[in-house]
Design goal:
single chain; alpha/beta; 9 strands; 256 residues; 18% strand; globular; Rossmann fold
Length: 256
């Protein structure tokens, strides 16, 4: 049985519809604030998804071929404290919920944890704190920054994708290549910087080759000014790109 935590009523209703239509695995949708979730509430669940949104991580696991009976947790904590268009309060923002999420992780100790955050959070020390917290609890932690255009999407949308593995030896000794940062057992693909030619983005793709790809800066808020697209934007605006997350999951599965 799956557990989906999402406090936004609109997204929670979306999740229930996805379950009813068998588009994501059956499970319970908990629309409480994560700060109200007690570790004992999670007992008996095989897969737990937090800050679930419209179930991007659930779809990513399916795309990667992750078995429904294999335990895993996922979570993409709120990006607003670190987003370039926000107030830049960082860890002082009340929406900085990694400590709350990590408390559940440390109490329940899932064997594998996947998650995501905006790239700009790195400058606020968010990734350093995450790795420190996970490693202090005996997890091997690693991360990668990937853009949406690395899987063919026509927008940049660079995000940190991270993994925590409960057995350190499981990720040690992995063969690293030239695209990796020296971090135990994990690949960090490095996206290129903006190219000036005709709005192209220079990107290191998953096959290791660099290509110039046409990208948009972000999702456009409307198409032709029609307001009936706003429900879609409301759901997709904070969502991950499942195809990118699936590549991260597949990379993990290749060594575990």
């Amino acid at each position: 049985m799956n557990y989906y935590n999402e406090f936004d009523p609109f997204a929670a209703a979306w999740l229930r519809n996805l379950i009813a239509d068998s588009l994501i695995p059956k499970g319970d949708v908990d629309d409480r604030d994560i700060r109200d979730v007690d570790p004992k509430d999670l007992k008996g669940y095989t897969q737990c998804h937090f800050f679930t949104g419209i179930a991007g991580w659930s779809l990513a696991l399916q795309l990667a071929g992750w078995p429904e009976d294999r335990p895993v947790w996922t979570g993409s904590p709120p990006c607003q404290p670190f987003s370039a268009i926000g107030n830049q309060l960082g860890t002082e923002d009340e929406r900085h919920l990694w400590p709350t999420f990590f408390n559940l992780v440390s109490k329940c100790r899932p064997p594998v944890l996947f998650g995501e955050q905006v790239e700009s959070a790195i400058g606020h020390g968010w990734l350093d704190d995450l790795c420190h917290d996970l490693e202090a609890e005996g997890y091997a932690a690693g991360a990668v920054v990937l853009p949406a255009c690395s899987v063919g999407a026509l927008h940049k949308r660079e995000r940190i994708f991270f993994v925590g593995h409960a057995e350190r030896t499981g990720l040690e000794g992995y063969q690293r290549d030239e695209h990796q940062i020296d971090q135990p057992g994990w690949i960090r693909q490095k996206s290129g910087r903006s190219a000036t030619e005709a709005g192209l983005q220079s990107v290191t793709c998953l096959d290791g080759k660099r290509r110039l790809i046409p990208v948009e800066p972000e999702i456009q808020p409307m198409v032709d000014g029609l307001p009936n697209h706003m429900d879609l934007i409301r759901g997709a605006g904070n969502a991950i790109v499942p195809q990118v997350a699936a590549e991260v999951v597949k990379a993990y599965m290749a060594i575990r």
